[in-house]
Amino acid sequence: MVKTDATVSPAGDVPTLRAVTRPLGKLPNLLAFADEHAPLFWNRGDRGCVGIGELLRLSFTGPDRFRAASARWREIAALAAVDDPVAMPGSGLVAFGTFAFADESAAVSVLIVPRLLIHRHRGTAWVTEVTLAGETSELERGADPAELLPTERAVDAASWAGVELRPAGSTVDAYLAGVADATARVVAGELEKVVLSRQIAGSVSRGSDLRVPLARLSERYLDCWTFAVDGLIGASPETLVRSTSGAVSARVLAGTRGRHQEDAARDRAARDELLRSAKEQHEHDFAVQSVVTALAPHVTELRTSDAPFALQLPNVWHLATDLGAALGAESTALELVDAQHPTAAVAGTPTVDAVAVIAELEPFDRGRYSGAVGWIDAAGDGEWVIALRCAQLGEAGPDGARALVATAGGGIVEGSDPQHELGETVSKFRPITEAFGG
Ligand SMILES: C=C(O[C@@H]1C=C(C(=O)O)C=C[C@H]1O)C(=O)O
Hints:
Layout: E1 17-23, E2 40-44, E3 47-52, E4 56-60, H1 65-79, E5 81-83, E6 94-99, E7 109-113, E8 116-121, E9 124-132, H2 145-148, E10 166-168, H3 172-187, E11 193-204, H4 211-220, E12 225-229, E13 232-236, E14 239-244, E15 247-258, H5 264-276, H6 278-295, E16 299-304, E17 309-312, E18 316-327, H7 333-340, E19 348-349, H8 351-361, E20 372-377, E21 382-386, E22 390-396, E23 402-412, H9 418-436
Parallel strand pairs: 1-5
Antiparallel strand pairs: 1-9, 2-3, 2-12, 3-8, 4-7, 6-7, 6-20, 8-9, 10-11, 11-19, 11-23, 12-13, 13-22, 14-15, 14-21, 15-18, 16-18, 17-18, 20-21, 22-23
Helix pairs in contact: 1-7, 3-9, 4-9
The structure holds the ligand C=C(O[C@@H]1C=C(C(=O)O)C=C[C@H]1O)C(=O)O.
């Protein structure tokens, strides 16, 4: 029998899965079907998906976590029977995943295959039912897809008891000292850039409906991917890779200014200053180059948007560059993630030195923050973003409350100012502090 818990080892027997997809007549309100306490959710604007139930969970740790997951998924996909007349991105067999940042992290990286997937893609919708060998597929038997949907439950924002998040993992003073130390190392020529982060934490009370923060994130951060996978909840603007039928795209971000929505002139000035800053442009070009170099062996016809543009999010401006390419040799989305991770956006440059400085100066395990979160289908296509603007929920304690830890950081280069960096982390925490707030 196939085990469906974390004890499934990457080297175990290959489970035989069957995925049956059928169109859904009515456009679903995805969150109305999501699990209140363990949501599995992926959404951007009018495209998204909710997973219900957990059929299979694969766990990975260590430096090989991406490669091992990709290899394991290839085996599972090769054996799976997929009946998918819809043939859209994300139809057919799909696994959701969240991967740790550091090779030595105690956080487990996972791929999860839900029993039921409800998808919406603009004006169309579909349902996918996944079963194990020997189980009956209702959709295959001809059941009406609408009958497989769980009961709709409205999201009641009024029921939400706000979560207050306070500095955790280290003090603000320790973070400021770390930024000063990192800047000194850059000035001394030890490395060019290092991304330092800090944490805030709070407690989510028993029975809280996690669809409330998810609804807030997906309504406010329309240009971001809102996600919930294995207790990691957030809305990331940075696409590591999107691969569909041979087309690959990515979005590189580096360079940040807080928004000033209360003052339009000040807001525009912040944007213009970001676009004109030679320091930010230099750092940005470096980040783009590192992604280009990482992707180059896997793709052809690699092109970037002409000049970096200012990406406007509700909390920050980012310098952004979009990349497009054609998939070369047959690589899975997870292999493309592996080729890039960790990017200069979340580690620094040179990568090896930056990762070592992070391990030395950050007094906590980043867990899945600044790792990768996304999904992969049976063809190896998928969408993966850097796990930014997110928080990780822990297991419930004796009183049912769950710890919530959010992490945010920024690139430290020559000339970085600790107070300015602190302000930038406050802006980057805003999606989480506001979504989980009262
Ligand atoms: C590290 C984070 O964000 C990254 C760092 C940025 C920067 O230093 O300007 C900008 C966007 C992200 O690539 C974070 O949100 O925690």
